[in-house]
Design a protein that fits this description.
Layout lengths: L1 E5 L2 H18 L4 E4 L6 H14 L7 E4 L1 E3 L10 H8 L11 E2 L8 H14 L4 E4 L21 E4 L2 H7 L12 E4 L2 H5 L3 E6 L5 H9 L17 E6 L4 H4 L2
Parallel strand pairs: 1-10, 2-3, 2-6, 3-5, 6-9, 9-10
Antiparallel strand pairs: 4-8, 7-8
Helix pairs in contact: 1-2
Bound molecules: 2-amino-2-deoxy-6-O-phosphono-alpha-D-glucopyranose.
């Protein structure tokens, strides 16, 4: 795992943006695995800025998202589909038909997971972007998710519901379940770029990098990936720096 410690969130975003822009310039029809959350927001702003200023084009790019709340429609303002459109896709020249995400309203959950797995097989990801949950989750793979998991429905943990409630009107509105790409599928991406910012991620970052790989900390699986870069700011690196 290659680790880059940025001075602050702004530097983290700049470094992450060049990583993605380079990928798209080298391969204009790249498939990008994208993530939601507050961490990639700075990076997404910079992709938009670069697209406007330098014309980097996403016309042939395909995007596959990690996860979606179960029970939220793509027009719900807390759905991840909505988040991606508002914070990125609407500002780029990407063809929305090439942007995929699980359907939170699917009637048959199992069939939806199978549909998404087929899609992931059809479009192997050149780069997978990841954020980190404070409990070490990646996408919505909570602690003790099997390492060989594919797309599945998750019961969200109390800590994730609490973390994510900051974006909802109140905690009762946070869905209790979600669809997520599995750990095996995440590991199939050719390259992985993980971002973590802030002191509340320091413990998970430390364990992900230093502790023995184990299903109790989903992100620790990344130690086994051949081409994984971790960009963290100083606060998130606190455990590593002060050890
Ligand atoms: C959520 C998402 C993850 C995200 C993580 C961190 O639960 N499912 O994909 O990486 O939380 O979010 P944030 O970047 O807001 O800290």
């Amino acid at each position: 795992m290659k680790i880059i410690i940025a001075e602050d969130y702004d530097e983290l975003s700049v470094r992450a943006a060049s990583f993605i822009i380079d990928t798209v310039k080298r391969k204009p029809d790249a498939t990008l695995g994208l993530a939601t959350g507050t961490t990639p927001l700075g990076l997404y702003q910079l992709l938009i800025q670069d697209h406007n200023r330098n014309g980097t084009s996403y016309k042939q790019v395909r995007c596959v998202n990690l996860d979606e709340y179960k029970g939220l429609s793509s027009t719900h303002n807390q759905s991840y589909a909505y988040f991606m459109r508002k914070n990125l896709f609407e500002h780029l020249d990407i063809d929305l038909n090439n942007a995929y995400i699980e359907n939170g309203m699917a009637e048959d959950g199992q069939a939806e997971c199978e549909r998404y797995d087929k899609l992931l097989e059809r479009f192997p990801r050149d780069l997978q972007l990841l954020g980190l949950g404070s409990n070490g989750h990646i996408a919505f793979n909570e602690p003790n998710t099997p390492f060989d998991s594919t797309t599945h429905i998750v019961d969200l943990t109390e800590s994730t519901i609490k973390d994510n409630s900051r974006l909802f009107a109140n905690i009762a509105e946070v869905p209790k379940q979600a669809y997520t790409m599995g750990l095996k599928s995440i590991m199939q991406a050719r390259k992985i770029l993980m971002l973590a910012s802030g002191a509340n991620k320091a413990d998970a970052v430390y364990k992900m990098v230093k502790c023995k790989t184990g299903e109790n900390l989903p992100a620790s699986i990344l130690q086994r990936h051949k081409d994984c870069t971790l960009i963290i700011d100083k606060e998130a690196a606190g455990g590593l720096i002060n050890q």
